[in-house]
Amino acid sequence: MKPLLGPTQTQLDACVTCGLCLPHCPTFRLTGDETASPRGRLTAMGAVADGVVEPDGTYAAMLSYCLQCRACEAACPSLVPFGQMMEGARAHLATVRPTTTGRIRRLLVGRLLNMKWLLALVTSFVGLIQKLGVMRLLPRRMRLARGLRRQRVFPHSAVGVHDLTPAVPAGSVALLAGCVMDQWFPAVHDATRGVLQMAGYEVDSPENQQCCGALAAHEGAEIDAARMAVRNTGAFAGYDFIVSDAAGCSAHLKDYGHWADGGNSVAERTRDVTEFVAELIASGQLPASKANRGQVAIHDPCHLRHAQGIIDAPRAIVRAAGYVPVEIDPDGLCCGAAGLYLVYEPDTAEWLGDRKAEQIRQAGPRTVVSANPGCEIQLRAHLGGSYRVIHPIELYWESLNR
Predict the structure, then answer these.
(1) Which of 11, 205, 229, 357 is positioned for an S-S bond with 259, CB 3.0–4.6 A?
(2) Considering only CA atoms, which of 94, 118, 92 is closest in space to residue 105?
(3) Burial code of 155-187, b = ≥16 C-beta within 10 A, e = fewer?
(4) Can you give the residue range of the structural domain that contains 369?
(5) Cα separation of 287 and 285, whole Å?
(6) Count of H helices and E strands in the chain?
């Protein structure tokens, strides 16, 4: 593993403090405060690295307030790797200034999310409180449960996902199970398997895989993130492609060269399901509907749009499903989910979620596609039950089954 304890001097020197990142940063736009901007955070990282200031509580708050949406990376002419630098800075902070809250957060994302029985228990609890209608009694930080809906969208699909395995596969695909996707978004996995099998691919989900490690990396739990990367590098060996149907996970898998020996092989074979399926539609391996089924609002997850530069693919999939994509936010500003951010920075997450929900309402369509689980949860919580929020691959799979 390559240690991340603090940004390197080369990375710090890459920033020329031009300020082009500022209008793209959600927290700077909200506060107008330089300390809440990428430039301000990088300046603080440099001061800590030079020993000018101590990594104290103020510094910790600056790092914690960052959504790690990486919109600044997409706007940066110097290609400053801000995401990696934030991970390194948080890992360093966790080492030199450990706190009880930080330890709990790192325990959650580094260990507990890999316990499937625990996630199943939490899922059952959320389902119970939803049925009892006591959601309003939950503490505000737990209101994200409003956005959890554990259901299969196509329980009676005309085309079963297990009936499509090709006699001569076009290639082999390892599907990332993820930490929450199996429990909270099984319909997305079903749709992904069905579509890829229809295109002629043999799809497998290796049992010895673990959570991709993205959340652990974001929280500074570098040892756990590296351990998961090593485990998955072995689990995904031998497959032609590695596909993730969660944008945050595909972005992290593409960065595995930074986390594990042999990780570059994972990075090179990883595809987000939206880019993979869009390529298959463009090549004619998957069909495109000629129907006119109405409009669908497009939400761009940060780790799809900013971290991976994937913008056209979800729109191509929506069009292939027979719908007209409707834009809601030309800036692609974060919705406020950002992993655990909506738990430990609820005020900012609430403001960003309300802003995004209002943009969707003004756009008109009652169906919204988003390719990341955290974003789906956030949008459902802020839009309410009169809106349908699903993954683009679900929408496409539904159209194929019509």
Answers:
(1) 229
(2) 94
(3) eebeeebeebeeeebeeebbbbbbbbbbbbbeb
(4) 287-401
(5) 7
(6) 21, 8
Q: What is the domain-level CATH number for residue 384?
A: 3.40.50
> What pLDDT score does 155 carry?
36
């006591």: which residue's tokens? 134
* Residue 141 counted as domain residue: no
Any domain includes 280: no
Q: The pTM is what? A: 0.89
CA distance 326 to 113: 35
359 CB-contact burial (10 Å; exposed 0-12 / middle 13-18 / buried 19+): middle
Query: Average pLDDT of each block of 10 consecutive residues along the chain (402 residues)?
Result: 69 92 95 95 94 92 95 94 94 89 80 71 67 59 51 40 60 93 90 96 94 92 92 96 97 94 95 98 94 96 96 98 96 91 89 95 96 94 91 96 84
Q: Are residues 241 and 249 in contact, defined by beta-carbon separation less than 8 angstroms?
A: no
Q: How far from the centroid of its chain's Cα atoms is residue 97's Cα? A: 28
